[in-house]
Batch of 4 targets.
Target 1
Amino acid sequence: MPKIETESQPIKTPSGLGGLIRNLHVWLALIATIPWALQGLTGAILVFEPELDHWLNRGMMDVEPTSEADRLDLDEQFAVVKQQHPELAPYVYGIDASDRPGIATRMLAKPEGEVGPEDGVRLFIDPYRGKVTGTQGYRDSTMGKLYHFHRTFYLPRWGRWITSTSALLLMAGALTGVILYFLRRKPTDTYRKWHTRLGMAFAPLVFLIALNGMIVTYRFVVFPLLYVATGDEIPQGMIRPPKIEVPDGVERIGLEESIRIAEEAVPNAKSTVILQPLREDSLRTVMRKKPNEPRDVGGTFVAINPYNGEVLDITCFTEGPVGGQLVYATEHLHKGEWGGYFGEQYMIYTRILWVFAAMSIPVLAVLGWGSYFRNRRRRRKEAPDESLGATA
């Protein structure tokens, strides 16, 4: 009859390939447990960043709607910003074009010295009463602080390197964990048993989230490579945004006119965001969302000459080259928004799944270390007393 191993039997130190991979798995956890746990916890919260950000800032974002006839169009709202915040108006680069009732229009400004959207200032405009309900630096908001901690741990010089390295180690940890499952005997220790079950349930998702996090972090390098790998032409705007000739004495067309032009160019979609050029010789882009595009902002970009309204380019990341589709996928996959491919109503399920996957990371760390230290104590108890051998 085969011998049945129980928790009371001596523990054998793993050897061979299983022992090598186990030691690697343990050392990966030793090095990166804390970064993994912190990124898992913050990532789980950031899955629902838009909803939480709205709730935390509802005093600025929620407005009391009146009749639709009282609603100011985007050009009139931008005039309000010019009047009430002339110091920020020249730096407005993003304008909410979703036209949602009861929600303040959001405009994003990037003052001089700021280097990215996450560093900008948000302005909220009541479209019914023509007033700015509040301004807020993204870094000063609760979700903005959480986002920057998730990406950099508040370490400007080394933070992004640490988080990207942590993601790489997490991929290795998930992979070695799966290999160990097939190489080693079934666990009998309670901690290890649950660590194994939970790990096998979420390891593929954790690996995918970590991989996607690295891609997003180094998108300026990875995105062009995705086009090259698929044999597709890299969009000109990804290499060097095209410049246009600035005619003398001609003002830019209005924001509402830009939306109308985009609607004619890409019908059966809704406008979500207008990217306003800060340079005089840059294009204006209207982002459109088609029914099959999961992200709230959509995946279709209509580039317009802001002086004569000519449509110069239409980029659809969901129906164009494979490289562009991969780029678009990375933008929403990391937050679990990919359920929108099957219909917008299904996005909530994949986002919840992503929360569980992110939360599994700190739970796995606790269970793994619980098993590790418990087995160390058992080995010490079962080790022969060397002092008896010395006196014999």
Note: DSSP finds 13 helices and eight strands in the chain.
Target 2
Amino acid sequence: MSRTGLEEDLRTVEVPVRAERRSRRHAADPARPDRLRLLDGLRLLAALTVLAYHFTARDSYAWGQRPSRLFPGLSQVTQYGNLGVNLFFIISGFVILMTAWGRPVDKFATSRITRLFPAYWAGVLLTGGLLLLVRPEGGLHGWEAITNLTMAQSALDVDHVDGVYWTLWVELRFYLLIGLLLAVGLTRRRVIGLIVFWPMLAALVHTTDQAFLSSLLIWNYAPYFAAGMALFLIYREGASVFHWLLVAYNWAIIVGLTGRYFPSGVDKKTHHQASLWVTLIVITVSILLVAACTSRVARRVQWRWLTTAGALTYPLYLLHEHWGWFFISHIRHWVSPVVTLVVVTAACLLMAWLIHRWVERPLAPRLKTWVARGLADARS
């Protein structure tokens, strides 16, 4: 464990050096590095694509006009930036399985709480303060901001302080499923069973209009997590035809779900008609990028700045939307749109670093101690 307690999981990926290998052909390389730094960089890239979507493609008050008119060519590309969320889910399937493997449920729960909540609380307070005190026309109520501190507002049908928080509810349900798997015993056979049957069962339940079960099973994003889990098996045990068939199987389900539910007509938020084939290509490339960033060759890349980039990803993702729009609305009158984009992106990155440095680093170790102690007392 690092001195901050944060360098496991989605931020800085710790890899199990002593992972079992199923055959001598897939024996571990004792010289391999302990961090997948390229995966950290890929996470920041995913966050920046979502940022580009919000700043240059999606409608908001920020520019005083439609971004599609201000950036007609760029917005045609960045309209696909929201697919950075899909990339996050693939990465999460890989990383969360790696984090959970060989751990008891309480250790897994502690790592998730420690990982998610410090920056999230800061994001709710900062964005909530902006919308309540500076931009009350946003319609946020104080009781909604308080409810958002639980991260369970979706379960209560309460609006999000920031629209991007919906993805955290998806992540929480995935953590719950992994926690249940840990409770019954996480084994290779059961992981493979989850990879194969979960996406298919979730989609089937959705077609029967069982809202609770389809929501619990994350019917529309299950194959993304499952594909990431299959990629972790490749990383852990070595590539094989069987492992790649698991990836291809979930990719095919993703293609089916995307094609079946792909929206027709012009998107009301971007005023563009997205292409199904471009969407499928972006998703396919996303899966291949995760595979590439976790390959044996990628493990040799040990640029430390990538870990720093990964550390900024989560707070950047939490803060950029409303604060970015607010900054744009005040800066756009003085400089060109391109300069505005650069300055506002830099400002959001600075805010992310400040949260990482002054909130996550000091609070996460304390929170970990409190949660671990509480769970230990409950267990005893």
Note: Residues 93 and 225 are 4 Å apart (CA to CA).
Target 3
Amino acid sequence: MDSEFAQNVNAYGAMAAVVVTYHPDAIVLENLCGLFSQTRHLIVVDNGSSVAELAPFRLAAQSQGFELIENGENLGIAAALNLGIQRARRLDAEWVLLFDQDSRITDGFVNTMMRFFASNPWGERLAIANPRYVDLRFGTPLPQHREVHGVLESATTSGSLSPMRVFDEAGGFAEELFIDGVDYEYSLRLRAKGYVIATCAEATLLHSPGDPTSHDFLRLKPFQASNYAPIRRYYQERNKIWICKRYGRHFPSFFLNQFTISMKDLVKIFLVEKNSWRKCRYFMRGIADGLCGHMGRLDESSARPPA
């Protein structure tokens, strides 16, 4: 355990980190070890990885003392996070850090985040603190969520720090979303209750943003394509609609920006991404299911995206 954190653990209260894994590799195990050195409790929730993939994590959990919860199937990111938070609550944790498996902690991360909470200008209204995000591959800064009057419109789940009392009051993540938009829904729910989300600029998290590619199509302004799989496109668009139906009246500018991004993404899919027609069909099915309220996990074997 980091010596500075050990000295301050009584002042801060018990801290638990929750990491959700899905088909993890050896690099993920390195990330976990670095995180465990700065926290009192580490809870790893796995969403249906294979026996071979989990074998080294089971050994590490036994030898190093972190917890491994094996779901046996993919329950979705929201359900996995909720399981981890519930376990942290039973451990009497007062603070919860949430992480993706592909995020890497930096030296002094936890203490820097905690000091930010201790000295923040919003007091107990601060519900989530996000760090700065840096591309793990290139060392370059990653885009942050938009700020309005010095506070974030939405939080990124990985690297976020919250007091347990916030989860006690606001509840857990919306499991009907399954994946994608889970952070948006929770952030807007908190903001609707008067809470604040802010960036701790002094804390840095090394993060992997997926597999974006850069393009200069027909000498247009250079742009990036995200290259999400068709099923991700489905969840992204479906969940935006579902969340908008609940919070659109409170946060119209947020959704105007989100739907603008969706339309730009649709153009990029057609212009430069592979498997574009299938992605677009799933994109449109997501909109249709969001409007109709068809939520939960999509059964791909029976899915019939619109022609």
Note: Residues 24 and 53 are 7 Å apart (CA to CA).
Target 4
Amino acid sequence: MTEKVKEKQRLGLKEAMPKIERYCAYQERCHKEVREKLFSLGVSQEESMQAMDLLIKSGFLNEERFALAFAGGKFRQKQWGKKKIERELKIRNISEYCIKKALKSIELPDYDKTLKAVAEKYIRLHKGERPLILKNKTMKHLLSKGYEYDQCQEILEKLSW
């Protein structure tokens, strides 16, 4: 006996708008995420474009606001560096203008302080290593978090080994 597979329910623009507005109101979203959500709701391509336009006009969707919130959040919560934040924003198809503005919103003194704190924490956690090996591993860790090579090198030179 074969089971019938339910066909995905397709929503019209009228039914999808309240759902997508709630989705956008919950947290900042990029255009790519909203398009994917509309697609998952079964909204047609044409209606999806109309929905995006309505969301932008009503203030539910703002690429610049998303980029600023994303950059600030990832920097404060996950302690990501600017390169990783920039890479993630590019994956989400955020414009160069918004990316630059978001990266500028990260204050340089806070950035340096966070970079130093991440390096010191890593060194504390791996204390038993030989100094040269630990320095190399710390550099790799900082680069993987998205910090710039020159700044990492500068911080590592200042730390005592």
Note: The longest helix spans residues 108-125.
